[in-house]
Structures
1.
Amino acid sequence: MNESFKENFDDFEVTPWKVEGSVDYARLIKKFGTQEITNEILEKIESFTGELHPLLKHKFFFSHRDLDWILNKYDNNEKFYLYTGRGPSGMVHLGHLMPWFLTKHLQDKFDSNLLFQITDDEKFLFGNQTLDEIKKNVYENILDIIAIGFKKSKTKIIINSRHIKHLYSTSLEIAKRITFSTAKSVFGFTNSTNIGMIGFPPLQAVPCFLPSIIEGKPTPVLIPAAIDQDPYWRLTRDIAEKIGFYKPAQIHSKFLPSLQTIGKMSSSSPETAIFTTDETKIVEEKISNAFTGGQPTISLQKKLGGNPSVCSVFSYLKYLFDTPAESNERELKCRSGNLLCGECKHDLSDDSTAFISMFQKRREKAKDIVSDFMYSEES
Amino acid sequence: MNESFKENFDDFEVTPWKVEGSVDYARLIKKFGTQEITNEILEKIESFTGELHPLLKHKFFFSHRDLDWILNKYDNNEKFYLYTGRGPSGMVHLGHLMPWFLTKHLQDKFDSNLLFQITDDEKFLFGNQTLDEIKKNVYENILDIIAIGFKKSKTKIIINSRHIKHLYSTSLEIAKRITFSTAKSVFGFTNSTNIGMIGFPPLQAVPCFLPSIIEGKPTPVLIPAAIDQDPYWRLTRDIAEKIGFYKPAQIHSKFLPSLQTIGKMSSSSPETAIFTTDETKIVEEKISNAFTGGQPTISLQKKLGGNPSVCSVFSYLKYLFDTPAESNERELKCRSGNLLCGECKHDLSDDSTAFISMFQKRREKAKDIVSDFMYSEES
């Protein structure tokens, strides 16, 4: 079967608004035209940061654009900004936190300024909520962002509708350079797409260029984000140099799987995800109902062993809580039938409730310092 | 020849960005689906304003949407806002002033609040100037707007890029309700249209709804403008009631003809128009070179008479400077061969230089009160 023939039979779909099916990440790299994060790049990162962050070691971040270039820039004393974001369609779940964890790590290790964009306009234009409903999400989501522990002095949150005046002229410069046919081919716009959606993408490009405007010189930007957002910045990269800026570099994560079935966690199906605002009891319930790679009965599990590679509980433990050594041991024990699903669920339940309870305390404290994190035109 | 067959042979084109050929205004009313301004409506206006404004009497304003409705509202003690605008593509010429003259008259007679929108973003997206070049136009154009003599206490100028934050949420509500196929059919967007242009139209709709937001209740709005801008508000009218507002009413003007050939005056061909910033000598030169309806020689003119209906000089005098009685007399004398083109040019030259020189003094004075006319979110 040749490549193009196989592509038509992909049983997954990844766009900025929809992630469906069992994602073949190696295939996605080819489809999107990104680069795999090689061991050579990881070694280079390690040379700056000391021990690699688990999300890098585990290759949860697996793909990039120009990451090698930005590391070379850093090596030559050219510091980079970080830029990531949040579409405030609802409450935040653990899947959303993953890129933010790495972003915080990179901010700490590279002493980077961070722009954090909240695309409230996008979520209004692409969804079914009112502006008032989205405004509530924005506030709740900001608490999560602050709870991650970003440096107050080096982190600025941009809310599109609030900071639109500051973003507008740059977004016009970008918009003028993107034709409908280009946007259509990247985003799949149709005749029934509303014109707000068609006009929106430049706004998600602006923070790629703000650092250069703030610093008064071309300034590298690295975007840690889940790979579904790549199309936005693919477009941005196409026009960056035409308006005198560097192309933004990117580092792409996989998706934390759904707790229930194959696929990404989803805010619209609350049972598939653990939200940062879930009560302990709810977290425990969701985990006890989670989909695992185990056998139907205990005796079969002991006889045949389980399959961690399709197990959501294993993935959560691996990416969020286990050390690499613990994770390897867990995998071996599971495969050899020496670990029952109940035990893993118990571990995940303990770890998750402890994390969520700690995180909720930090969310409470965040309420007092929201304004310190807001972008201002003077900053 | 049937109607639809004839339509294909129209030798004119009117869109918000292009007016070409000799416009058949009766035909345009049919094409756009607007209403003719009837004598009944003019009598109704006269009952409120006293003697009709010359631009109404001369039917320079010839078409409308819901003008009768808004007059009935007024009759029932429901006052209306006026809304008009300027696309700051360059300096202002006499053609631009025509709708503003009527707007001022309506403001005086109906004691209306006026929102004056400057679409600097549109002119950037649709044109070839930089944002800085357009910013200079904006300032110069504001001087013209103020020089018209609008009431300071009842007039607010909105500059899209400056007031974008205040316009943005309403523009999102509008944008979400307009599909690409609708916008495409109204504006003729193609695959090579930039996505800023596609996303722009909602911003020109916002001032139709701002009065209701300001007043906290549905508030009628009347838009005096040249008829080429109708497509914007045709779209707006389609969605107004869906979001709880009145449809904006409109009163449409013809175009002041070019001084040189058939067609509209044009900022891109400076010799076809008299700009408010032209020096006296330039005004005189342009008028002396103007296209008239006269005969090739004096003796032929005396023998055959001229044709005022195709004469740019006659139109300028009629719409801008002559009283209706003077204009009728001028027409009769011209047609009977008792008036030479040189005499009309002389009259127009005298009137125009006097007007421009008075207007330029008012433009100078306007410089001190620009900020008084700026829209503020508190107003």
Note: Chain B has two domains: 3-255, 270-366.
2.
Amino acid sequence: MPRVLLTGFEPFGDEADNPSWDAVRLLEGARIAGHRVATRCLAVEFGRSLRQLRAAIRETAPALVLCVGLAGGRAQLSLERIGINVDDARIPDNAGRQPIDVPVVEGGPDAYFSTLPLKAMLHALRAAGIPAEVSQTAGTYVCNHVLYGLMHALRRQRRVRGGFIHVPYSPAQATAHPGAASLPTATVAEGLRVALRAALTTTDDLRLAAGATH
Amino acid sequence: MPRVLLTGFEPFGDEADNPSWDAVRLLEGARIAGHRVATRCLAVEFGRSLRQLRAAIRETAPALVLCVGLAGGRAQLSLERIGINVDDARIPDNAGRQPIDVPVVEGGPDAYFSTLPLKAMLHALRAAGIPAEVSQTAGTYVCNHVLYGLMHALRRQRRVRGGFIHVPYSPAQATAHPGAASLPTATVAEGLRVALRAALTTTDDLRLAAGATH
Amino acid sequence: MPRVLLTGFEPFGDEADNPSWDAVRLLEGARIAGHRVATRCLAVEFGRSLRQLRAAIRETAPALVLCVGLAGGRAQLSLERIGINVDDARIPDNAGRQPIDVPVVEGGPDAYFSTLPLKAMLHALRAAGIPAEVSQTAGTYVCNHVLYGLMHALRRQRRVRGGFIHVPYSPAQATAHPGAASLPTATVAEGLRVALRAALTTTDDLRLAAGATH
Amino acid sequence: MPRVLLTGFEPFGDEADNPSWDAVRLLEGARIAGHRVATRCLAVEFGRSLRQLRAAIRETAPALVLCVGLAGGRAQLSLERIGINVDDARIPDNAGRQPIDVPVVEGGPDAYFSTLPLKAMLHALRAAGIPAEVSQTAGTYVCNHVLYGLMHALRRQRRVRGGFIHVPYSPAQATAHPGAASLPTATVAEGLRVALRAALTTTDDLRLAAGATH
């Protein structure tokens, strides 16, 4: 059966858990639209995360790669449109490194669009009652690093599509962040399943406005 | 068995559902800390909502009253500290009335504090992994109207405690509000159960900072 | 000439300046609608701030009292509707005290509405191109303490009106708070002048919706 | 004297003014760091705005191009890091067109980084007391369209640097948007002057973290 590679991240910063991995692990081995899901947990480290991702791509030879990360403070599943070729870290990564304005890939293009059908995924998520939005930036930390590096790795394999989804805090995490939004792990996992199914069954993306005026 | 009266609201504005009632109804008949829960759904109408609430208090003779309403846009369960003696409606209520700067109770005091042990409830919610906060304002619409009217109705029955909790959008509702926070009905209902248990088992409230600098 | 008492606050927390006093001091001695403005700078201390305010009221015998404080993070001039009888401090005051759930005035009523014509002030500010809103909570820190204490002090002098306006960070302060809103001191001072003129020339407040649904 | 080209935009959407042009026009003819400022007002139209911009570049042969646009709701001057090759309009432009997921330049690269020294500009703005931040997205509307098109036009003229700054509402505009941040035109114009001076006098950008974790 063809495979989907689905990755989450280990905890970072002051957090004891990372809801991206907590949700992703629930889908290990799941069958979605005729594909088997393989999961991996990536380090929150510049460089090492990408080496892990590339190794996982070699091991699983997936038809589609979806990486998932935490966006503490965002309220909805964020379908990332683009990864950009810069690391600019406000806080050190889990190995203590804090690159500032360094390219992800020396000499690489400035950015890569995700090749997932974002609008079809957005439509499917909303139809399933799961709040989602298209995001125009994945930031400049390890999540963007992984998205850019993923699309760079896939640049010559145009049949393998790739992209990134940011997820909110878990409710338990949000108890330490007054006023912060959250979604339960079960809701996020269901959202990932819905998004993957839409991605795997969509050839031509929908035409659905989901931009930002700024 | 002594009773708890728990109320939600019917839908209002552009919303087809009201997650306050969707969560409250799940607790109909539940037994919490030696009390039986009776539930009611209130109209989103100035005046009528309070007549319904007072009738429900007479019918159920509760030991504690907790009213629950929707605060679309808030991300956590909001334990309301105070109801104020003013109706100032930005949108008409479900009967088409839009009072502006009219007292809830002519000649009543300017405000009533909730008599629930908010800090103990906050502590219990967070310990249970459910994001919550104390709120210093319930607004000036029907929710505040009901909170003020509840505390006015209870002003001579100091053994019957009362208060109000605002809850976020449901995930399905949030799909129509890009960027808006939400919590599933099951999470909210579990939060109400935890909050009620804390309220029913706490005599002297905790001393726990949960104020706002502004 | 009858007088207006206008107060600001000294700096607190991590801030080196307090834009409330920076704006207020610009109006010292100003003549507005036939009144002379007297200004005072209050301590950011529970208790002492109110003793200073009561002394200033005795000294100036004002026709109207307007207290002004910083609400770092708010974007517009906030006309406060009500002060509530509780101190609940998230951070210590400038004397190191951090009261939690203590009344401002032991045995006082739960709250006092401002007696200023908020809607007329709001209308005048907007007409003058100065962004403003009515706020339903002044928090539970020293600003609310002063508003509640002011209205308590004036409770038997119904001819002397009183209220509170919260102002945003200054632009210079906002440089240390990424993403935070700000308004220049000159804009705030002009807003206070406009608000005072409206308050002094309005007998019956306007009927203008400015409430909150929650 | 070498020239700087500085552009603003005409009003769009429901707004009667555009603070980007209101601020930019104040700098017409100004001399900054040995350069003369030439200003232009661009149409809020996909396509036409870029034709106007390219014509202005031909006419003025500038050493540096800075385009400025409104980001209603943002609170600080936003130094845009990157323009991306997509138009995805949530609202029609001033000519009634609403492209969805169309490239700005057919066959162009996915994105172009600004070539301005953003961190030096950020540092200079903060030192001058003007709130500013680096932004990782200029959206997908006409502002991003112009930024992408500008960098595409300059791609073979590496000595001509270019970039984009988003500015907040004016205070007068914010009176129609309760809770929205704003900055006066004079503050914005002063910020543009400070930013241009920093850009014109900086060869190697500062190393200063200003990224986003997501």
Note: The radius of gyration of chain D is 16 Å.
